[in-house]
UniProtKB/TrEMBL annotation:
Protein name: Large ribosomal subunit protein uL4
Residue span of region Disordered: 45-77
Source organism (scientific name): Imtechella halotolerans K1
Assembly, per entry: Part of the 50S ribosomal subunit.
SUPFAM superfamilies: Ribosomal protein L4
InterPro entries linked: Ribosomal_uL4, Ribosomal_uL4-like, Ribosomal_uL4_dom_sf
GO molecular function: rRNA binding; structural constituent of ribosome
Any single Gene Ontology cellular-component annotation: ribosome
Family as reported in the entry's similarity comment: Belongs to the universal ribosomal protein uL4 family.
Key words, A-Z: Ribonucleoprotein, Ribosomal protein, RNA-binding, rRNA-binding
Length: 209
């Protein structure tokens, strides 16, 4: 699959690159995509939820009232869950939500996601660029030139570029990652995936194994 290489002004450079069929032209595996997205979202959970149970609530252990003769239910402690301020029954406890997934399944899922984007013609190949200093306005100008200012976009760099990353950090609809940070969820979550020329070799070498 051949794609024209654009510059940051949105114009064609006259060059074309061939996207590998082994990465961008496979038969998508929807179940692998589902497993990889589920694992990514599960691993984002901190699992620090916690509520105090009866033995953790501060309060007197004195028996509230005598056992019999009051005409009401017996009660032994103000820390009982039936009272306001008492402990919570079966409340949430810290939990590790981390899931594991086979590397081959992850690789298949990412290739499937890139293939889906390629079929939708949602992949843009951009020549490598950088900024002299971090400036959000410069990154917004690139988005406007590519017609992506009103869409969610994912920029994939070959190597980390601090100026480009910092220029995009304030924009909620755009994200900049390197090839090592690329995952299925981020690919599918974006309307358009912008691949810099320097990232193509890394993506294809990582996923064509």
């Amino acid at each position: 699959m051949e794609v024209a290489v654009l510059n940051i002004n949105g114009k064609e450079t006259g060059r074309k690159v061939t996207l590998s069929d082994a990465v961008f032209g496979i038969e998508p595996n929807n179940h692998a995509v589902y497993l990889d997205v589920k694992q990514y979202l599960a691993n984002q959970r901190q699992g620090t939820h916690k509520s105090k149970e009866r033995n953790e609530v501060a309060g007197s252990t004195r028996k509230i009232k005598k056992q019999k003769g009051t005409g009401t239910a017996r009660a032994g402690s103000v820390k009982s869950p039936v009272f306001v301020g008492g402990g919570r029954i079966f409340g949430p406890r810290p939990k590790d939500y981390t899931q594991k997934l086979n590397k081959n399944v992850k690789r298949l899922a990412r290739k499937s996601a890139l293939t889906l984007k390629a079929k939708e013609q949602s992949i843009v190949v951009l020549e490598d660029f950088s900024f002299e200093q971090p400036k959000t306005k410069d990154f917004v100008n690139v988005l406007k030139a590519l017609g992506l200012d009103a869409k969610k976009s994912l920029f994939v760099l070959g190597d980390s570029n601090n100026n480009v990353y910092l220029s995009s950090r304030n924009l909620k609809a755009s994200e900049v990652v390197t090839t090592s940070e690329l995952n299925t969820y981020k690919i599918l979550n974006a309307n358009n995936v912008v691949l810099l020329e320097g990232a193509l070799e890394g993506i294809e070498s990582n996923l064509s194994k």
